[in-house]
Design a protein that fits this description.
26% helix; single chain; eight-stranded parallel β-barrel; two-stranded antiparallel ribbon; TIM Barrel; alpha/beta
């Protein structure tokens, strides 16, 4: 999703009301309930859960109100993942002390690392953060400082670098005359700097959009840097419903099936890195219940992030158009498919 004009680094965690947003369901659809969730004692290699999936939420206000990072600890619900966005131009270096707050609260950080200035750049007006500029060495000092900070952090975390590259809404993607070869060269260049700086704790998440700007999945793998440079693959996929005249209501399965099939070719674990639904045009609660019922049918998906924001007049927030608390216990907290709090740094 386009994150132009984000004012703050955004933190994703979960509160009970957001989880409980899954009430209101699809008639005849159910998710099996297990007696108790599984809690892992050791973080697995490359952060791939051995059973079930990691899960979490994107919530913009956590950086505005950082005390909310601790709030969920007082609840019984403990998500696996926390994601935030950090652009190169306005956010500076890795804040590994803040990431420590996340792991202390039992979640694995995901950093969506964006090579642009999100406050000033658009897909067409930037000449600063092009793939060619990055591979020329222009930003080597910044990249190396960031990589050294990542190495100092020591704990594993996901780095979602230059995401949704198959779309035309970011300057590193399918815009400005960029080619897939330009993108792959940039990815490999940055990856190798991290290796040189000893940041081997970074888990590299390559994450296109579910389709390009024409609605096709055909170009996705054109941007794949290769298995030696990627630990996980992921994708974004939203139900835009009747948000505008160009979109229609789509089921969860309609959104994920084609990109799932394409990305499974890589043999890598898959993260559904951004997904959610609007209310306009259909039943939002039913859509989420379908999502929870459908995910186990796709065994290569090992993590999911639900996007919780009213974004550019498309209300993806989980507290809108949904019922609350009972479903938190039924669909997440008592279902071992969803791995809770894998970090035992609490």
């Amino acid at each position: 999703m386009n994150t132009i004009q984000k004012t703050y680094i955004t933190i994703l965690l979960i509160l009970i009301p957001m989880i409980a947003a899954f009430a209101g369901g699809v008639a005849g659809t159910s998710v099996s309930v297990i007696a108790a969730p599984v809690k892992q004692t050791v973080l697995p290699e490359n952060l791939v859960p051995s059973n079930g999936i990691y899960y979490g939420y994107y919530q913009e206000t956590y950086n505005i109100h950082p005390e909310k990072v601790e709030t969920h600890v007082a609840t019984d619900e403990s998500p696996s993942l926390a994601m935030y966005y950090q652009d190169w131009g306005s956010k500076g270096t890795l804040d590994y002390r803040y990431m420590d707050r996340l792991t202390h609260n039992g979640v694995i950080p995901i950093v969506t690392w964006e090579p642009w200035n999100a406050q000033t750049d658009t897909k067409t007006n930037t000449t600063e953060y092009t793939p060619q500029a990055i591979t020329s060495g222009k930003y080597d000092p910044f990249i190396r400082e960031w990589a050294r900070d990542a190495a100092r952090y020591k704990k594993p975390f996901y780095l979602r670098f230059a995401h949704e590259m198959n779309g035309n809404w970011y300057p590193w993607g399918n815009a400005n005359g960029n080619t897939p070869e330009d993108y792959k060269a940039m990815w490999i260049y940055v990856h190798d700097i991290f290796e040189e700086e000893g940041a081997t704790n970074v888990v590299w998440l390559w994450s296109p959009n579910n389709t390009d700007n024409t609605g096709s999945t055909a170009s996705i793998l054109d941007y794949y840097p290769g298995s030696a440079y990627v630990d996980w693959v992921g994708f974004s996929g939203f139900n835009w419903g009747a948000s505008n005249s160009e979109t229609t209501w789509k089921s969860f399965e309609e959104i994920i099936k084609e990109p799932y099939d394409v990305l499974s070719i890589t043999g890598k674990p898959i993260m559904l890195a951004e997904t959610a639904s609007v209310s306009k045009g259909g039943d939002k609660a039913a859509w989420f219940k379908e999502a929870l019922a459908t995910l186990p049918k796709y065994p290569n998906i090992k993590a999911v992030i639900f996007f919780n924001q009213d974004f550019n007049d498309s209300d993806f927030s989980l507290g809108s158009g949904l019922n609350y608390e009972a479903v938190a216990k039924e669909y997440i907290m008592q279902n071992e498919y969803y791995v809770q709090s894998p970090y035992l740094d609490k």
